[in-house]
Design brief:
By secondary structure, the protein is mainly alpha-helical. The chain is built from five helices and four strands.
């Protein structure tokens, strides 16, 4: 369930990752038509997209309702919500976020699926010009992100380390 990329864009990105070559023209040779069909089939076998295109703001209830339908129809085993801050909340408080995370956790257990949130940090303060790696307490909105997570990771790029991404496990 991505709010930043539509399904066709995601499909192309996943195909490129799997094929390890670009879909469109670029500085290197692009994906062949044969490979395009092969990797599109792979995406179709492994991914289902929940699109928010009905003109209504997304709520956690609407996302979980469509996820339940996808579980029953297609047997999905995981849900990625990217990013969390597109979900409309009645109030943006620690209590509201905590309640949402509890609801999601109970839904995941009841339906035997994994759920991942992509949640961006609050504005990070620089330390001598370097942005520190965000942790669970740094996610915008609530410390509940740390308290209620089963597992928490941050993908961090330090601008001083060119082309290096770090993965930090904070819970």
């Amino acid at each position: 369930c991505s709010f930043e990329n539509d399904p066709p864009t995601h499909i192309v990105k996943l195909m490129e990752k799997r094929a390890k070559v670009p879909f469109f023209e670029g500085p290197t040779s692009r994906m062949t038509k044969q490979d395009m069909h092969k990797y599109r089939s792979w995406v179709n076998e492994h991914f289902l997209f929940i699109d928010q295109n009905d003109g209504e703001p997304a709520t956690i209830d609407s996302i979980l309702e469509r996820t339940k339908a996808a579980i029953l129809r297609s047997g999905i085993r995981g849900l990625v919500i990217d990013p969390y801050n597109f979900i409309q909340l009645k109030r943006d408080t620690t209590e509201t976020i905590s309640e949402m995370l509890t609801k999601v956790r109970l839904f995941a257990k009841a339906n035997d699926i994994h759920i991942w949130f992509v949640a961006h940090p609050a504005k990070m303060m620089r330390d001598n010009g370097i942005f520190p790696c965000p942790r669970g307490y740094d996610i915008s909105g609530s410390a509940a992100w740390f308290a209620k997570a089963d597992l928490g990771i941050s993908v961090h790029r330090d601008p001083s380390k060119e082309n290096i991404s770090e993965v930090h496990v904070w819970k």
